[in-house]
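Q: What would this chain look like folded?
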Amino acid sequence: MSDEVYISIITINFNGAKDTCQMIDSLKQFLSAVSYEIIIVDNASLNDEAAFIEEKYPDVKCFRSNKNLGFAGGNNIGISQAKGKYIFLLNNDTYIQDDSILNLAIFLDSNPSIGAVSPKIKFADSDTIQFAGYTPLSKITLRNKLIGFKEADYGQYNEAHASAFLHGAAMMLRRNIMKDVGPMPEIYFLYYEELDWCEQIKKRGFDMWYVPNAQIYHKESSSVGQGSPLRCYYLTRNRLLFAWRNRYGIVRLLSLSYQLIIANPKNILYYCIKRRFDLVKSTFMGIYDFIKMKNKKI
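A: My prediction, written as structure tokens:
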């Protein structure tokens, strides 16, 4: 591949220098057929991990935010500094084992109507699929599925196809569509921001595809536990935010009603039975903060 296909690889680091360095090492080991830059945004780690990474890798561009700006805010810093024809948002807890991610750029080069793509994503150190595309979100309940999730990979998802959404852990897009699409929405802070961004990409007339001849490996994040109050709060608030921003008319009303009258009360009852009153509190806080936010321009 010629140097004209130039990729800006952007990664957010938050108290995860070890994983970030392993990711950088894998990129340096396998990527040589194309010019690229690596941009690391340290999202207010306890220590200045940007300085540590920059010292270890002088050719890596490192930026430190003194405030945790969330997934979207950190990526937007990186995007603002990127010079590549293509922008590749890549989680710091991922790694590659070959140079197949270059096929994402090749695919975009060959398909000008497609604005963004994601590779096949497997769980780390395994042949188990995490992502082979997304099904569409249901209009009212906001439910969808990861295609191929936890399935053994025997080639059943080796055909490229359009995907309703892309995966935030590994997403490549054309830099020249940013003027139309705008930055990743920072209002979410955590969860749903990439889904909202994908909605903005689609609204601007760009298609999104899953490209399986590109592959990465993803370590499961432990930074926010499955049963943590923080996760519960943001998921509760941000589902409501997503419905408010991306549903209209009667569909918006029905979607919000479903969350407020059916889904959230059901969750609260379950948490009470499990005596997880911290999650009950987080659910109510998520609802309360959404109500405050919806009165602003969101």
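The chain has a mean pLDDT of 93.
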